[in-house]
Here is the input.
Amino acid sequence: MKTEDDLERLAGELRYIITDCICRAGSGHIGGALSLVEVLTVLYERIMNIDPANPDWDGRDRLVISKGHAGPVLYAILARKGYFPSQWLATVNKIGTSLPSHTDCRRTPGVDMTTGSLGQGFSCACGMALAARLSQKNHRVFTIIGDGECDEGQIWEGALFAAHFKLGNLVAICDYNGLQIDGPTSQVMGLEPFTDKWRSFGWQVYEVDGHDMPALAALFKSLPEEGDKPVMVVARTVKGKGNREVEGQVSSHNVFVTSPEAYCRLIEGLGCTPVALPYE
Amino acid sequence: MALHDKQMREVYAATLGELIDGNPAVLCLEADLAKATGTALEIGVKRAANFVNCGIQEANMIGVAAGLAREGKIPFCATFACFAARRAYDQAFVSVGYAGMNVKIVGTDPGLTPESNGGTHMFFGDLGIMRVIPGMKVFSPCDVYELRSMLRYMAADHSPTYMQLYRGIAPKVFDEDYAFDPDKLVRLTSGDDLTLVSTGYMTPAALQAARALAAEGLGVDLLHCPSVKPFDAATFLESAGRTRCVVTVENGDVACGLGGLICEICAESQPTPVTRLGIKDSFGEVGTIADLLDKHGLTPEHITDACRIAAGRRNQEA
Here is the structure.
């Protein structure tokens, strides 16, 4: 098992890969990918029951990234876990790629559901959790939604549905970074009191620092294996985390890298020595 | 009671029940319209383990169905066509079509048939907007025998599918031994004077018109189209090439549905004049089905008249 230092190193490497992939593609949703690095690192290294050599293994835990534009962070960890050759990472958003900007289960081994139109992946995750219940299977379904995504009515339809059908095998994580395309969530469409809303919808709600991997691991491990209530983990995150060129900025949602200088600035923004890229 | 004396919804529910009994992966999803669809007792009570009532959440229902399908389930999701095809279209497009999920979307009360529910509940573009989702099969059965066979096909076929479902009693067109084939138009009457293409709810009226015209000596090649997608272009083009005169009739908007499809095929493959009967750039409104069909020129008499005119024009040009 990897040590905590190993996980920190891996998280740094994922940030480097995400930044480099987006730079090579010329544009990409860097902010909401960087904010999820620790959440995905902990899920894939500490929590989810998976077999990278057998992506469709029926007993695996599922992960649906409903905020599908976070594709690059998922691709970085999936490549690191061996779901597909690391060389694929150099093809993000190139025509014919297996790694499109928004996650696509028909193209990428290890992607459990196609997402991209906000709110929809959350309903799909509810359906996957219901399927497990109907078939008396014990795996769990994890799903990651964005805070801005919670503007969508479909999220709240799913919230009612999951509680009504007692989907205790569903663990939702909200990447609560406080920013959406047009500004802070508080200004564009207020969500507070956010945790109270989910509690009132019948969910078991937890809050955690979404960049604190020991805290994330401890929380996920403490969740009941079997329960009647779906779980909402509100992960307090920073959009663009770990890259000072974009961190905490509204504009980090989707960056355009139009010059070699912009590329250099984004790489330098990581504040680390260059990582040996697995696809070079 | 013979099968064709039953309402279409009774046969929908009974057939879905048989399919569930034969394959527990088949599920019935509803959005608070199970009583209207007919599944409340047959599935909701008798086969409760395979019944998921999603409440008034059409968008979530389609998303949930996609998730269920991802796990190998075969969900049949029913709601009024206006909600199935219009309200939940983005879910049908992305979570079902684009994701390639084996979800069956059933749009009940198509076209003018919502009657007193009126314009908000009438959507005429469902065949059209569903057929532009790549990989989506699009069906419209005309009677209970076809509905039953179609449902059996859908449960065995691994494809996203949209099916219209008129809920009431439909005049009998086929027999017990009818077998639905999505790749085939069904020739109901033969003739060399005119090609009449109909689908779903309008086929019995088209058949009545074709018989009346035959009695006058006008030979109608009546092609019933249970599958708008895939579409049997070969049979159609052979017929149209022979008659050089085409009329289409549908319980929906001619711009994008069957009439639109036939015009596309004719324009690209074999230019032929086409008369399209259906709704033309109009919203729906309240009214009895008889009054609504009359207003939109869709009674057997209207169809007969339109065919006479189309054949007469072809003869003048020839």
About this structure: Chain A has a mean pLDDT of 96. The beta strands of chain A are 27-28, 62-65, 141-146, 170-176, 179-180, 183-184, 204-209, 231-236, 255-256. Chain A has ten helices and nine strands. The longest strand of chain A covers residues 170-176.
